[in-house]
Design brief:
41% of the residues lie in helices and 15% in strands. It is built from 12 helices and 12 strands. It has helices at residues 10-16, 29-40, 57-60, 77-86, 101-106, 108-128, 163-182, 205-214, 234-247, 268-278, 304-310, 318-333; strands spanning 20-24, 44-49, 68-71, 91-94, 134-138, 186-191, 193-195, 220-221, 228-233, 257-260, 265-267, 287-288. β1 (20-24), α2 (29-40) and β2 (44-49) form a beta-alpha-beta unit. The longest helix is centred in the middle third of the chain and has 21 residues, at 108-128.
Length: 339
Amino acid sequence: MKQEKNSKDDGQIDFWCHRNVLVTGCNGFLGAWLTKTLVSLGAVVTGLMRDEVPQSMLNRERIIKEINIVRGSIEDYDLVERSINEYEIDTVLHLAAQAIVGTAIRSPISTFETNIKGTWNVLEACRQVNTVKRVIIASSDKAYGVHERLPYTEDAPLQGRYPYDVSKSCADLLSQAYFATYALPVCVTRCGNMFGGGDLNFNRIVPGTIRSALSNQRPIIRSDGTLVRDYIYVRDVVEAYLLLAQKMGDLKLQGQAFNFSNERQLNVLELTEMILHLLGRPDLRPVILNEAKSEIKNQFLCAEKAHACLGWQSIYGMEQGLLETIEWYRAFFNDESPP
């Protein structure tokens, strides 16, 4: 059951109002939600985006009209440094990435260019421009690689094996190197599998299952259905990023990594069946292809450090998050205003 929470509190508004924030990948899934929230809190947001995506949440909800836009690639160092310098950026939220595991397997070089080079460009530009007071780098649970001991805690070694996982391990380690060597005020986030409205990658299990069911089609599971993950609603992740950015200086958390998870583990088949149940379509039995390769069998996170250090808690349960997500996609496919 969702806990009651004010969408904005005075502390958030006081911190973010008029603050110059750069969001890389602002038209991506998490990027759009973070940008929307920051704008609502009065931040002056500059968004770095490579591609125009007409159906993105940033465009559909006209958030793009309320921010500064820099068009270009995160692999372009000069562009990144110019953006941070000219817009006098105080806070950097680095989300831009090639985030699709299958794409990384097909195109490892472009994934490494974006996820690794893109990260060192951001870190180096932040080192060079003295207006920057805090940097948050989006890593991933995938950065941990395969471990027998679960759930992952932040002190577990980063040992990615597959292209996407390796790219996130490297980005994570680069961030730690810039703190250790240059005292760059950086923190790293490692989140479970995010879901929510605005995710237009329909190869992912949540939006793909919802789209199939709303189209009266059986959903597709690429794996054998037994892969275990923890899932976290995107609005919980937004609150985690904002809280970490607000507290990292006062609590002297620079150089540290934080896991964010609702700490509820599900396999892919269980999640698919939960979505179908919430949609009232349990009759649409999933098609299990068992084609997924180079994916870790079991991955899930311990978020105890975030609870203890930040006072962060997941607010939205799986069911509540999924119900809100379903309503978002109903409106999306009916070409209506978002809920």
